[in-house]
Amino acid sequence: MYKLLIVDDEITVRTGLQSYFNWSSFGIEIMGEADDGDVAYEMIEQETPDLVLTDVRMPNMDGITLSRLINEHYPQVKIIFVSGYDDADYLKSAMKVSAVDYIFKPVNLEELGSVLKRVVSDLDEARTEQQRKEELQVRLKEGMPLLRERFLLSLINSGVQKQDIRERIHFLELNLPEDASYWAFVISIDDLATVESVRSERDRQLLWYSINNICQELIDTHMDGYVFEHHTGEFAGILRLNMDGEGVRDAAEVLLELAGKIRDNLECWLKISVTIGISDRVTGLGNLTNCYKQAREAVNHKWYLGKNRIITMDSLETPEQHSGSSSRYEFVYNEELTSALKAADSEKLHEVLDSIFVDLNRNRPDGLKYGRNVCMQIFLAAGQLLLELNMQSEELETVESSVWESLFERETLVEIRQILESYLLAVCERIREKRTGKVANLVERVKAIIDRNYANGNLTVTDIGKEVFLTPTYVSLLFKQESGQTVGEYMTQVRVEKAKEMLRDPQYKFYDICYAIGYTDPSYFTKLFKKMTGLTPSGYREKYV
Predict the structure, then answer these.
(1) Which of 180, 236, 263, 523 is deepest in the core (most CB within 10 A)?
(2) Is the dihedral of CA 136, 137, 143, 144 positive or negative?
(3) Cis link prior to 106 (omega < 30° from 0)?
(4) pLDDT by residue (tens digit) across 177-210?
(5) pTM assigned to the model
(6) What is the secondary structure of 197-242 as a DSSP string?
């Protein structure tokens, strides 16, 4: 319903308008009446109507003056004048103050209805437009975080035009003075592949949201600035410190303290490790693009410095390059590696890998991507050699696939070397075993270890590998290739055969047999025994005793 205020110094007019016209049919309700303009304006100040129906001539404040006040302070209110035929001059003034229409006295109800129909249509249109604006305002408010994030991304990626930056900052309600001192930082999630693989999409999004919240709360406590997601697993930030009376050294201490708290809180509350790169200090928003590049370069150095660190630009030293020669990965390394593998010379293999990784460490600016590519070349060279020696197998291909994936997932030079070196040593050992005929002997040694230790329920392939000085993966691979069984299958076979022997002796109780062969769960042992023999332990005893 629209609210109407009737203003007329004649009580008969006011009474007649209230009593003899069906206002509700037009969606209008009368909020009150006044006998003069000054009284009406006081009422409007208390409660604003949508529509005012006012006489032109009144003793204290006429309708023209009232309408000017209304237009000045309440421009959305619609005004309709009521006047006599002799008030032509007044009506001219009325139209100058934006009255929507006028009606001559005595009021013709049919004419009044026609005027109200047009006015209500205008009110409906204005209300619809107002609702649309309010909805847009709500959407704008809801979308403000995204708009701020886009703007901040533009600051670090491409910069913004100086002429519009102030207006945009004001509109987005950001606290970013144009000529202040700033730092950029980058937070990189360590072991990103693992972090993502153990979470659903919902949990991943919740994790990113939580990281952003924790970081922003800490920034608000220690400095001024903003943090936002830049890429999956990477958050960027812009930091500013109020330098009132504080030197650059004090600012650096605050900055490092903040970075440390971010790292520690993410580890405490979210159980994740992060590496944080921090740029040098710059002055002015226009320098944030280079500032971000510095922070990104700093965090990228975790590939040789290690994870879970805070890395600043001034902490990075420029390593010396090889004098008089290229420090890039050279083809000769492939020849040396291939020679060491063919000779099954593990010591030579270590020496070549040391040389390669020393060079990689000296080429820090080339980053993880280059180091990973070098390792891929080495890995492929080893695979090619196995093909040439006709030593490929389905099991080995499975191992190779796992190594390949791991090389892509690992984020530091140390981790990549461990994976690559373990694989190359296994290849080296495999070639040595084949050439010396020791594979069969190795299988017999593994079987002997199991035959001696089957009663140990905690016996693992890792334990066996330590006794034969080989990796668990390599032990499993060779055992399966030579015997046709996995280590676990052979261990189960030995335990079941020992159980059969003991079941044929009535002095042994069932649960004693279970524990004696390395099982702690009688129910599990029963299922396993029946699967292997077709009989339950009690059924086997009844049949053979």
Answers:
(1) 236
(2) positive
(3) yes
(4) 988 999 999 999 999 989 999 999 999 999 999 9
(5) 0.60
(6) HTS-HHHHHHHHHHHHHHHHHHHHHHSEEEEEEEETTEEEEEEE--
